[in-house]
Amino acid sequence: MISFSKLQERLRPSSQYLRIEEGDNEELKIQTSPEPSQTRTTCYRRSFLLSGLLNVILAGACLSLSLRSWSWHDNGVTEPKDTSFASSGFYSPLTDRVDLTPRLTTLNGTFLDEHDPENPLRLLPGEKADSAWKAVSEIQYITVSHSEVIKLGRDPAALVRAPEEWGFGSDRYIAMMDLTHQLHCINYLRRAAFPDYYKRDMYRKPEFYEQHTMHCVYMLYQNAMCAAGTEVITYNWLEGQQFPVPDFSINKMCRSGDALLEYERENMVEDLIERRSKMTRPEDAVVLPVPKKLKAWLEWLETA
Known about the structure:
Elements: H1 4-10, E1 16-20, E2 28-32, H2 37-66, H3 83-86, E3 103-106, H4 127-137, E4 142-145, H5 146-151, E5 172-175, H6 178-192, H7 206-227, E6 234-236, E7 245-247, E8 251-254, H8 257-267, H9 272-277, H10 292-303
Antiparallel strand pairs: 1-2, 3-8, 4-5, 6-7
Helix pairs in contact: 2-6, 4-6, 6-7
């Protein structure tokens, strides 16, 4: 049996690099160029470490999303609430609409999916995997009320209202769930890990997609540091392995991401792409300035 350390020695670095297209349907293009051996080795090591990190993130996300442990009341409010847990987080209108009581969960931290059938979120690129990831990571709008906006610490006058013809009322503002954005970023990096599958014959402004990638990386980093998990990972001896192997299947107290996604599906703005394309800025809308560095970069991008 080959060990993980020997497996690394057998792999060969690639002389290819990728850039990512914009949006949920972003794809990749491969470019090749000769590189010095030392550069290839350095790039390979970084890629190997990044691949391992992504495996851990994706494995945790997969199990969290596969859990179905919530209850619903007719009025959309669930009880009982874990007040000690809720008080540790910033206000969210979702806590009054979804049962987010933490439950003991064991993450599926295996290196390969040992289940049959396999979780589609862990499959290699293909129709099943893409369909599963689209279902959990596609950006959607929900709406929040004026009073909820105030509790979120935002100025209602500076926010975008949901057009009344959308059917949510005259006192609603568009929003999205932070969970959905995090899943969007994980899917973005998943696609980046398979350039041969998600490639495109032509692309525009690769510099934009590079920055989009790093935006996602940094957002996931900040969320991981904010959660600051205190769980401890132990090690075991496995047959055929030279070194101790970590057991990532740890116990955690988890809220139900599935319950949040179910709420999103039941309350999202339908036909979002079409409706968004018809949105116009009201004459009295507050228009915020673009940050200085971003403005200069966007202007450069237009002429690059």
